[in-house]
Amino acid sequence: MDMLRNVFKNNIRQYGMIVALVFITILFQILTDGILLKPLNVTNLILQNSYILVLAIGMVLVIITGHIDLSVGSVAAFIGALAGIMMVNMNMPFYLAIIVSLVLGALVGAWQGFWVAYVKIPSFIVTLAGMLLFRGLTMIVLDGKSIAPFPKAFQKISSGFLPDFTVGSLNFLTIIIGIVLSLVYIGIEVYNRRLQKRYGFEPTSGKGFIVKMVVIVAVINLFMYVLASYKGIPNILIILFALVVIYSFVMNRSIMGRHIYALGGNEKAASLSGVKTKKVTFWVFVNMGVMAALSGLIFAARLNAATPKAGTNFELDAIAASFIGGASASGGIGTVIGAIIGGLVMGVMNNGMSLIGLGIDWQQGIKGLVLLAAVGFDIYNKNKSS
Amino acid sequence: MSQYILEMRGITKTFPGVKALEDVNLKVKEGEIHALCGENGAGKSTLMKVLSGVYAHGSYTGDILFKDKVCEFRNIKESEELGIVIIHQELALIPYLSIAENIFLGNERSRGGIINWHETTLRTRELLQRVGLYESPNTLIKDIGVGKQQLAEIAKALAKRVKLLILDEPTAALNEDDSANLLTLMLELKKQGISCIIISHKLNEIERVADSITILRDGKTIETLDKKRDGVDEDRIIKGMVGRDLTQRFPERESNIGETILDVQNWNVYHPQRESQKVIDNVSFHIRKGEVVGIAGLMGAGRTELAMSLFGGAYGKKISGTVFKNGKEIKFKSVSDAINKGLAYVTEDRKHYGLVLIDDIKRNISLTSLPKLSKRGVVNQNREVIIAEDFRKKMNIKSSGIHQKTGNLSGGNQQKVVLSKWILSEPDILILDEPTRGIDVGAKYEIYTIINQLAAEGKGVLVISSELPEILGMCDRIYVMNEGRITGEVDREEATQEKLMKLMTKSRG
């Protein structure tokens, strides 16, 4: 029981955020007379927030290492512009353009990572410079104009859905995927439990185990049912899902992930324990560059245009998502799933407030207060525990 | 009026779990230079912090009388108003401000909040002349050397109309000439009627300038010597400093010493920022299998710098020298390379350099050994839990479980986590830097037992310690360092505290 309380105490920030997300969702569900969770709107929510969520995944890694990246919005715009030039002006095949764009994103990340990790310039300054530099470059390569339209196949990234086998008004494939996912989830949980038993651990109580599984399976299938009643699973959701699974795995289970956490928690101790701190920092920034590029591509595909103004303030949304999701400004603490939840909190608030007709002025102010409250709660908790 | 400018009577100061000062008495005569001597941790700095008000009245017991008046300082400002000024080992000057600005910082010559630069400059000139510092008042502090900075600090104290000047290790960072200058200045100030307390490990200096000497040991006053009456010399002071009973016990160990496992020849290291300053000067030493070798020395002798520069160049620049492991020449290119080649370094500062305090016991123990616990870059978390649990039991780490954050553990248990981490990395040679600093006696014994076990397994162990009894009780062979050099090598049988202390304070030339 003590152990359970401990686990809860350590994760209160994370659970707290899930509770907050549920609370905000219910609140706006009531305020909007049920529009918020209508299948059309849920699909919209995913499409609207996808590029911020992609950025948040990269950003939370940067924040865990104790750094910050202010340039991601400009980088997203810059890569989007280059993708437009490649696809529209040069008629490059879209898959090749995507690969080149991601590589360019990695190069941008390597450029910033070099200054931060090896020259030891504070990341705030390096990426502030990057924010100006890449915004400027965007306007130069676009000559101040927008490029459009993108090839149909490319637009599908952001606006396409998995092909459907409709039965009645429901998208059948979506339902099947939901069931398969549930089975895979149950399989993994049971396997882990067996493994733990083999290593001779006391497994958590059987009752709690089953309750947890039932809840999660129910959530998965309900969500899929909602999607199925509209157009099915958006392509972008698959990309997001894959990213969350891969990055959560890397951060929790791989040596690289452990090194990132240790570096953020105490750089000197990590370095004296054999962590190659400079190399790790460098690669975290390279990764951020790739994620910014991906975000830029998704945004360009959604807008069906590469514009000089794309990506404005994306960095702030991504940073806010990470902090609301429990990342610590001093580094070492944060999770990928937390950043996603933080991004969704912001997304649901944006969407909900727009639906009830609140002006953009009020929306900005309220979001600011939510960010402050979330981080304030974090600091309060930390002071209490120490 | 009595002959004493300062009397501290029956000062007792406790920190949680430790009695730092116990019934300490200190009497300083008007116009004398009074030296305060004692080993590291004897309580000298604590006593001076009580005097200057860093530890406010009420946090200690006992009386402070300054010029026969009882004083109850609540902060430094109050003690400075009466003319008690302390100059710390780490100078409190702002590098990017001028000498004049530094001297009058917090004490500005001003009217209505506007600084009178004219008066500031004039007064600074006067003060600089008094301390013999011939620089323009507008020179930035960062552009003058450490010796001159020290003089600027004293000028700053004079600007506050100092009556009692306290100098904490004033010559620790100075070269011979600057040190000699400073001592002459102290004698000069004495003539002007300023009383002075000096804390120093350099006993030859104390012998030269001090009129009387108070010796502290383990937080207690041992004796006060009068130079004229008692005819003090270095040996007499050393005897007072170390003449204690061995209260700590050390576990028995049968030495079973084998071949040389690590041999370091002509090791030289320069300061990472001031690249002309040699921190380690031509040091050679060796460790054999199953041997516990000690490095004794005072703070700043270069012991930690030696260990860290060896550990994959984690400290210093322009490192040169050769290293042999098991007779073969070897290079530690980086920290991870050193770890892979069987070296481990347990830091003296476990909170800043040893542990990730926000992470739990398990993750801290596994940090250096993750590749061993992994397959294709993926950590086997179940094995990790088992290993951490194993260490928790074996090392007797008192905690609620392996998921407890290391930041919430006591010093002794934190040290056991750090040791677990390095033992798991399966090194051949361990360097332990102050392994029992800030640890209570019971946990010390446990850590000594672990050290003995490691030696019995045939590993080479190097122990760096400021506590002489620990060095004497644990080591087969002892090197002594001072000012970046090895000043002596002593076998266990011949080692005494007096002998080591003499080598520890032996200066160049």
Automatic annotation (TrEMBL), chain A:
InterPro entries in the cross-refs: ABC_transp_permease (IPR001851)
A Pfam family matched in the record: BPD_transp_2
GO cellular component assignments: plasma membrane
Record localization: Cell membrane
Residues spanning the membrane: 12-31, 43-63, 70-88, 94-117, 124-142, 170-188, 209-227, 233-250, 280-299, 319-345
Record-level Gene Ontology MF annotations: transmembrane transporter activity
PANTHER family in the cross-refs: ABC TRANSPORTER PERMEASE PROTEIN YPHD-RELATED-RELATED (PTHR32196), XYLOSE TRANSPORT SYSTEM PERMEASE PROTEIN XYLH (PTHR32196:SF32)
Species assigned in the record: Paenibacillus cellulosilyticus
Protein function: Part of the binding-protein-dependent transport system for D-xylose. Probably responsible for the translocation of the substrate across the membrane.
Keyword field: Cell inner membrane, Cell membrane, Membrane, Sugar transport, Transmembrane, Transmembrane helix, Transport
UniProt name for this protein: Xylose transport system permease protein XylH
Membrane disposition: Multi-pass membrane protein
UniProtKB/TrEMBL annotation, chain B:
Coiled-coil spans in chain: none
Pfam families noted in UniProt: ABC_tran
InterPro entries: AAA+_ATPase (IPR003593), ABC_carbohydrate_import_ATPase (IPR050107), ABC_transporter-like_ATP-bd (IPR003439), ABC_transporter-like_CS (IPR017871), L-arabinose_ABC_transporter (IPR053466), P-loop_NTPase (IPR027417)
All residue ranges annotated as the ABC transporter domain in the record: 6-243, 264-508
GO terms assigned for molecular function: ATP binding; ATP hydrolysis activity
Annotated keywords: ATP-binding, Cell membrane, Membrane, Nucleotide-binding, Repeat, Sugar transport, Translocase, Transport
One CC-aspect GO term: plasma membrane
Entry membrane topology: Peripheral membrane protein
Location of this chain's protein in the cell: Cell membrane
Nucleotidyltransferase in keyword set: no
Protein's recorded name: Multiple monosaccharide ABC transporter ATP-binding protein
Record organism: Paenibacillus cellulosilyticus
Phylogenetic classification of the source organism: Bacteria, Bacillati, Bacillota, Bacilli, Bacillales
